[in-house]
Design a protein that fits this description.
The complex is a heterodimer of chains A (about 625) and B (about 700). With about 625 residues, chain A is an alpha/beta fold. Chain A has two domains: about 30-360, ABC transporter transmembrane region fold (Up-down Bundle); about 370-455 and about 540-550 and about 570-630, P-loop containing nucleotide triphosphate hydrolases (Rossmann fold, 3-Layer(aba) Sandwich), CATH 3.40.50. In chain A, about 65% of the residues lie in helices and about 10% in strands. Chain A is built from 23 helices and twelve strands. Chain A has helices at about 1-30, 45-55, 60-90, 100-145, 150-155, 160-200, 200-210, 210-250, 250-255, 260-285, 290-310, 320-360, 420-430, 450-455, 470-475, 485-495, 500-505, 520-535, 550-565, 575-580, 600-605, 610-615, 620-629, and strands at about 380-390, 395-405, 410-415, 435-440, 445, 460, 470, 510, 540-545, 570-575, 585-590, 595-600. In chain A, the strands form three sheets. Chain A has a six-stranded mixed β-sheet with strand order 6-9-10-3-11-12, with helices on both faces. A four-stranded antiparallel β-sheet of chain A has the order 2-1-4-5, with helices on one face. The longest helix of chain A is centred in the first third of the chain and has 50 residues, at about 100-145. By secondary structure, chain B is of the alpha/beta class. Chain B folds into three domains: about 5-325, ABC transporter type 1, transmembrane domain (ABC transporter transmembrane region fold, Up-down Bundle); about 340-430, no CATH class; about 470-485 and about 520-690, Rossmann fold (3-Layer(aba) Sandwich). Chain B is built from 25 helices and twelve strands. Chain B has helices at about 5-10, 15-25, 25-60, 65-115, 115-120, 125-130, 135-165, 170-175, 180-215, 215-220, 225-280, 285-325, 335-360, 410-425, 435, 485-490, 515-520, 535-540, 550-560, 560-565, 585-600, 615-625, 640-645, 665-670, 675-685; strands spanning about 445-455, 455-470, 475-480, 500-505, 510, 520-525, 535, 575, 605, 635-640, 650-655, 655-660. Chain B has a six-stranded mixed β-sheet, with helices on both faces. A four-stranded antiparallel β-sheet of chain B has the order 2-1-4-5, covered by helices on one side. In chain B, helix 6 packs parallel to helix 7 (about 135-165), helix 9 (about 180-215) runs parallel beside helix 12 and helix 11 (about 225-280) packs antiparallel against helix 12 (about 285-325). Classes of the chains: A alpha/beta (about 625), B alpha/beta (about 700). At the A-B interface, helix 3, helix 4, helix 5, helix 6 and helix 8 of A face helix 3, helix 4, helix 5, helix 6 and helix 9 of B.
Chain lengths: ~625, ~700
């Protein structure tokens, strides 16, 4: 027997492991998800998820105990008042006992006052615990997401991430704080009522529990379908959200192509899918209550029948029967509440799953245990036979890239788009980890030092300029949080952003918004430039950073940052040869390999790829020359 | 649109009245639900009566033969009642959901009619919230809270009537308490309103912050600013919690009184009733049966407080949603009428806006600033393209100011002014239907065009710009960062409307063209490349009427994208991210160019489209584009001379003005700003090829291909 059970458990574990592995693999293979695709679902309601929730309750254990005590006291009062009523009606009034009536009335009043005082306490205390818990959970999600690699953000619509941090957590709010405490108090009431019922007549009590198994079956039945329905619903909601989010982000594109109608139609389709699934989940959810009600009515009828006919030797007085029925009514109210809570829990489990799933995504790039801080660096960079693939067995993006840069050198990377130039610099900031070989800064392997100490000494200007909502000043200050206004201005001057910033309506205090703003792409790039310079990094990476800047500004900017580049190791990716020719070292990257390197003159002399690239780019000028000739 | 968004701006319309038109198409469901509801309520009253009959007739009178029918009857009644309740619950759920879908659809549609200015000022996360959480707050009220309230009211008055029949003195004694309940409930509700709005605002802030963090995750990582972001997040997180706590404290302040008053109904019944019985003015049986109805009275009163909170949650959500729906697009379908109205109403509008602001300042419930752009020249509501275009755009309401979060009595004045302004606007003339189906030749004329942003009317972005681009010609635009180049071309696609002068396309004012037709034939490849999270194929086919593989590939080839697409593991079926983050800058630009080409526009605008593309590829793209010569008007904004050199006409823009114009040769010969730039680029690039600048002057161009 025992062996069998163990074997079964082992088999189950194995199966679960296999499932987990499959899931992890799916996640790792950087599979992209669009708004149209559902995410995977788990089949069974997971008790582990529920257990994990307990971790969030833990810090508030003490408070919860107090709240529970308060709520139970309220429950006790709620149970006691019918008893008080019974005494008044059965004894005091028939005895014409006016002082007694006033006495008990006063007692009743005291009970009400105590009850309301407890209610006042409970209202705030529960909100506090509940909201604090949600706050913790949201914070955990947020900080966790900060650790996730680019590939996580790149492989799924951002709306799907957003809905997890904000919306899903909010759906838990009622269930987890108020719901949980109430359900405990309901169970308490249930037990209390049951005790009283047993005290009144144990045989009737047993009879009134006859239908409880039916209820259990009913609840289990509904739960199975309801859970499934809610899982699908959460998925569809996630899809819809992703679509809405994308629509908002892409509204300009849609308008530009006059595709509003098509987008709208897709949206309506999505909306209808959600509506359909929503109703489906509700069909099941709403079934809970009628089940409990009908079972309650049947039980009451049964008790009347048994009590009156004396079926099966039950013999009770009329008074007992009526009192019993009264308690039986009290019995079912908490049962309904518990049922509702269960309902909510089923609903939540669908969302909890998504939340925990997010928390379980392994940050691929993390500080090693015991990673040391990278001390202030000089700026030497070594790539030792670096091989990089996004995923195991995937396409080789970089193949045996090996180069060494002395502090203060300027390195230009050239090559066709998609050759791997951006990947090279991404490895340097450790946005990705190398598959083979190593990347070293001042002799420290980037994997051995803390991410924070590494990245804070590196300035990266990305292709994609992103500014945060806030003032121009705040955006520049993002580079160094303790920078003074003068520092900010100095940085802005250095990159020739000062002039146009001064011309803005509120100067440095002009608000800029996420992406769309009244700033031009070039202006945003200049601000981003100032932001990087303010950070005063030892290693500077400019990834097509000047593509949107006009020649005049770029020229000025080049002059301005020339002295800033001094003493810094810098990597420049650009298409304009004017940015490239003066580099100490030019590396030509093609198909993930460095095929040529050297100074401009050396490479021109080699008459290789660089030379061809250079020549072809001047086809226009060459043509003119020929015609001239 | 299901409902004219104008209604959303109307402050005189309360939130409940506002939501009604969104619900009415599903009225049949509500009617059936109401019938089922009534059945349920009647049966619910029947149950205690049947229980009473069992006690009276079977137990007291000993008529045991009635036990079975009564017991079965109770089971049967419960069955019918629960079925009825299930029925109306489901129907009402659907009813609420239908309303939600209509509202969100309207929001979605509205969103796409707004001009760029709106998106420059409202954060994506905030908009997102209005379309999800806030819309859901409305659904919850329509599909649940309302009938719960009805339930309470029915029970309350029903039981009052029944109890009055049993003993009027006792009922009157209980009724004495109800004014207090009413007063307390009202006070709570009134105070709860801004608090719920605060919660909504705080949530929107949280959402926007997280959204931005996700969008900007690369920057966050690049600067290792995770701790700073977390700190920012904590503030929002904390703020949201505090908003909830404020609401909870308000509930604590009033709810115990409400609950206590309801509770005291039992006490009054017992003590006062008891005295009556002891004094012989009432039988014990009457008191018992009176008592058995008491739960019908005190249950609803207790619940009502919570439902009022729900109602205020609904109100807060409505305000947010209405603001989005009432937001004004500054583009109007009919320019001339709008301009005429402009002069008449400008004073009025300023007036109304001012008074609106004043009211809002004095109104304690206002938690957030009004977020639309200032009331501007054009009228408020634009009929969308999806609405019937031929319909006269009577929608022109001047209610440019958005409703404040409270449309109570204090708003009446502002509302009245808005209305009077709205009435002044003459019905606009019908949009020219014939333009809708016309194929655009592509001639573009700027006639003394000026432009300023509404939030900064003193800084002209464009100033007296005039030029003519004949159909099929190419125009190159060169200028410094922020000189107004992008704004200029945005006027052609009507992402903004000029504040002075006009833009003529094929001789017709751009504002007269139906927006849909205009944008279908004018295509802008923007600096800020946005790709949808979909396959490359779908992304390219986004605007295209044709989407066979051959065509898509052809377009990709012209844009110089075919090569790298086919090199990808899944080729054209590769899924790219929202911002196309899996691709390099140059690849994204080429995809968006292919997308624009596939749209087959009459006017193609390339706004710095090839800046991140290497020169070799760019040269190839230009060669391919030449194949299309003459079939479309092409505007090219660029910083590289090489990108604009071959254009039929080159405009050099500085501080919103055209400072030089002409062909490459002319401009080079003129030795002006263009020549300067040319020399610099050439100088830098040909430093060691021994190229001589003298040869600039008389060269012949355009034959190198």
């Amino acid at each position: 027997m025992a062996n069998n059970r163990n074997a079964a458990r082992n088999a189950r574990n194995a199966q679960r492991n296999a499932q987990n592995e499959a899931r992890n693999n799916a996640a790792r293979s950087a599979q992209r998800n669009t708004f149209k695709e559902d995410e995977e679902l788990e089949e069974q309601i997971s008790l582990r998820d529920i257990a994990r929730i307990a971790q969030y309750l833990k810090p508030y254990g003490g408070q919860l105990v107090v709240i529970l005590a308060a709520v139970m006291s309220m429950g006790a009062i709620a149970v006691a008042t019918p008893y008080l009523t019974k005494i008044i009606i059965d004894q005091i009034i028939p005895n014409r006992d006016k002082p007694g009536l006033f006495m008990l009335g006063a007692a009743f009043l005291v009970m009400i006052l105590v009850y309301e005082a407890l209610l006042a306490y409970r209202t705030v205390a529960i909100t506090k615990v509940g909201q604090s818990m949600l706050m913790d959970m949201r914070r955990d999600l947020f900080t966790h997401i900060q650790k996730l690699p680019f590939s996580y953000f790149d492989s799924r619509p951002h709306g799907k991430i957003l809905i997890r941090v904000v919306n899903y957590v909010n759906t838990l709010s009622d269930t987890l704080s108020g719901g949980l405490v109430n359900v405990i108090s309901d169970i308490f009431k249930l037990l209390l009522t049951l005790v009283i019922m047993f005290a009144v007549d144990w045989r009737l009590t047993l009879w009134s529990l006859v239908l409880v198994p039916v209820l259990v079956v009913w609840v289990r039945f509904i739960q199975t379908y309801q859970r499934r329905a809610f899982q699908i619903l959460s998925n569809k909601q996630s899809n819809l959200n992703a679509y809405i989010h994308e629509s908002i982000a892409g509204v300009k594109t849609t308008q530009g192509f006059a595709r509003e109608r098509e987008q709208y139609n897709t949206f309506v389709d999505q909306e209808n899918v959600v509506r359909h699934q929503w109703m489906k989940s509700r069909y099941w959810m709403f079934l809970m209550w009628p089940g409990v009600q009908n079972i309650s009515a049947m039980t009451i009828s049964l008790i009347y029948f048994i009590g009156i006919t004396g079926f099966a030797g039950v013999d009770v007085t009329t008074g007992t029967l009526i009192a019993f029925i009264g308690y039986l009514n009290n019995f079912w109210t908490p049962v309904i509440n518990v049922g509702n809570f269960y309902n909510q829990l089923v609903t939540c489990s669908a969302y909890l799953e998504r939340i925990f799933e997010t928390l379980d995504v392994e940050p691929e790039i993390e500080d090693k245990p015991g990673a040391s801080r990278l001390p202030a660096i000089r700026g030497r960079v070594d790539f030792n036979d670096v091989v990089f693939r996004y995923e195991e067995g995937g396409r080789t993006i970089l193949n045996l890239v090996d180069f060494h840069v002395e502090p203060g050198q300027t390195v230009a990377l050239v090559g066709p788009t998609g050759a791997g130039k951006s990947t090279v610099v991404s490895l340097l900031s450790r946005f990705y980890d190398v598959t083979e070989g190593s990347v070293k800064v001042d002799g420290y392997d980037v994997r051995d030092v803390t991410l924070e100490s590494l990245r804070s000494q590196m300035g990266v200007m990305l292709q994609d300029t992103f500014l945060f909502t806030g003032t121009v000043r705040e955006n520049i200050r993002y580079g160094r949080l303790d920078a003074s206004d003068e520092d900010i201005e100095r940085a802005a001057r250095a990159v020739h952003a000062h002039e146009f910033i001064e011309e803005l309506p509120d100067g440095y205090d002009t608000m800029v918004e996420e992406r769309g703003s009244t700033l031009s792409a070039g202006q945003r790039q200049l601000i981003a430039f100032a932001r990087v310079l303010l950070a005063d990094p030892r290693i500077l990476i400019l990834d097509e950073a000047t593509s949107n800047i006009d020649t005049r500004t770029e020229e000025a900017l080049q002059a301005g940052i020339a002295h800033l580049l001094k003493g810094r190791t810098s990597f420049v990716i650009a298409h304009r040869l004017s940015t490239i020719v003066n580099a100490d070292e030019i590396m030509v990257v093609d198909r993930g390999q460095i095929i040529e390197h050297g100074t401009h003159d050396e490479l021109m002399a080699q008459r290789g790829f660089y030379w061809r690239l250079y020549e072809s780019q001047f086809a226009m000028f060459k043509a003119e020359q020929h015609e001239e000739a | 649109m299901y409902v004219d968004p104008k209604r959303s701006a109307e402050k005189s319309i309360g939130n409940i009245r506002w939501v009604v038109p969104y619900c009415t198409p599903s009225w049949a469901k509500a009617v059936v639900a109401l019938l089922l509801f009534i059945i349920d309520k009647i049966l619910v009253m029947l149950l205690p009566i049947m229980a009473g009959m069992i006690v009276d007739q079977v137990i007291e009178a000993g008529m045991t033969e009635r036990l079975a029918p009564l017991a079965w009857g109770m089971v049967g009644v419960t069955l019918v009642r629960t079925a009825a309740r299930y029925g109306y619950q489901v129907l009402m759920e659907r009813f609420g959901l239908d309303a939600l879908v209509r509202i969100v659809c309207d929001e979605y549609e509205k969103l796409h009619t707004l001009d760029f200015t709106y998106f420059n000022h409202v954060r994506n996360g905030d908009i997102m919230n209005r379309m999800t959480a806030d819309a859901d707050g409305i659904r919850n009220f329509v599909g649940w809270t309302d009938y719960q309230m009805l339930d309470c009211i029915c029970l309350f008055f029903g039981s009052l009537v029944v109890m009055f029949g049993i003993d009027w003195r006792l009922t009157l004694a209980l009724a004495v308490v109800s004014p207090f309940i009413f007063v307390v409930a009202r006070a709570m509700s009134k105070r709860a309103r801004p608090l719920f709005f605060g919660i909504r605002q705080s949530l929107a802030g949280l959402n926007a912050m997280v959204e931005e963090n996700i969008e900007g995750n690369r920057v966050v990582k690049a600067f290792a600013r995770e701790p700073y972001e977390t700190q920012k997040f904590d503030e929002h997180n904390q703020d949201f919690m505090q908003a909830n706590m404020k609401q909870a404290r308000n509930t604590r302040r009033f709810m115990p009184w409400l609950d206590g008053l309801s509770y005291s109904l039992q006490l009054i019944t017992l003590v006062f009733g008891g005295l009556l019985v002891i004094d012989g003015q009432m039988t014990l049986g009457t008191l018992v049966s009176f008592n058995s109805f008491l739960w019908m009275l005190d249950g609803p009163t207790r619940q009502f407080g919570w439902l009022l909170n729900e109602y205020q949650r609904f109100n807060a959500s409505c305000v947010k949603v209405r603001r989005l729906l009432a937001a004004t697009s500054r583009l109007d379908l009919d320019a001339k009428d709008a301009l005429r109205v402009d002069k008449e109403t400008v004073a009025q509008q300023q007036n109304s806006a001012a008074s609106g602001e004043a009211v809002q300042q004095t109104n304690a419930t206002v938690a957030a600033p009004v977020e639309t752009v200032k009331p501007v020249s054009t009228a408020a509501s634009k009929l969308t393209k999806l609405a019937n275009l031929a319909k006269p755009s009577t929608a022109a309401t001047a209610a440019a100011a958005v409703p404040g979060p409270d449309e109570g009595d204090s708003m009446a004045d502002a509302g009245a002014i808005d209305l009077s302004t709205a009435e002044r606007i003459k019905p606009a003339k019908p949009v020219k239907r014939e333009l809708a189906n016309r194929h655009m030749a592509g001639e573009v004329v700027f006639d003394h065009v000026g432009f300023t942003f509404p939030d900064d009317p003193d800084t002209p972005i464009l100033d007296d710009v005039s030029f003519k681009a004949p159909a099929g010609s190419s125009v190159g635009i060169l200028g410094e960062t922020g000189s107004g180049k992008s704004t200029m071309v945005s006027l052609i696609a009507r992402f903004y409307d000029p504040t002075h002068g006009k833009v003529l396309i094929d001789g017709v004012d751009a504002r007269e063209w139906p927006l849909d037709t205009l944008r279908k034939q004018v295509c802008v490849v923007m600096q800020d490349t946005f790709l949808f999270s979909d396959t490359i194929r779908e992304n390219i086919a986004f605007g295209a009427s044709q989407n066979d593989d051959c065509y898509i590939r052809q377009m990709a080839r012209i844009a110089g994208a075919d090569e790298f697409i086919t090199a990808m593991p899944d080729g054209y079926d590769t899924v790219v991210g929202e911002r196309g983050v899996g691709l390099s800058g140059g690849q994204k630009q080429r995809l968006s160019l292919a997308r624009a080409l596939a749209d087959n526009p009459s006017i193609l605008i390339m706004d710095d489209t090839t800046s991140a593309v290497d020169m070799e590829t760019e040269a190839a793209i230009q060669r391919h584009l030449k194949e299309l010569d003459g079939t479309r008007t092409i505007f090219t904004i660029a910083h590289r001379i090489s990108s604009v050199k071959d254009a039929d006409q080159i405009l050099v823009i500085d501080h919103g003005r055209i400072v030089e114009r002409g062909t490459h040769d002319e401009l080079v010969a003129a030795h002006g700003r263009y020549w300067e730039i040319y020399r610099k680029q050439l100088g830098a690039q040909t430093a060691d090829t021994g190229y001589d600048n003298r040869s600039d002057r008389d060269e012949q161009t355009g034959k190198e291909d």
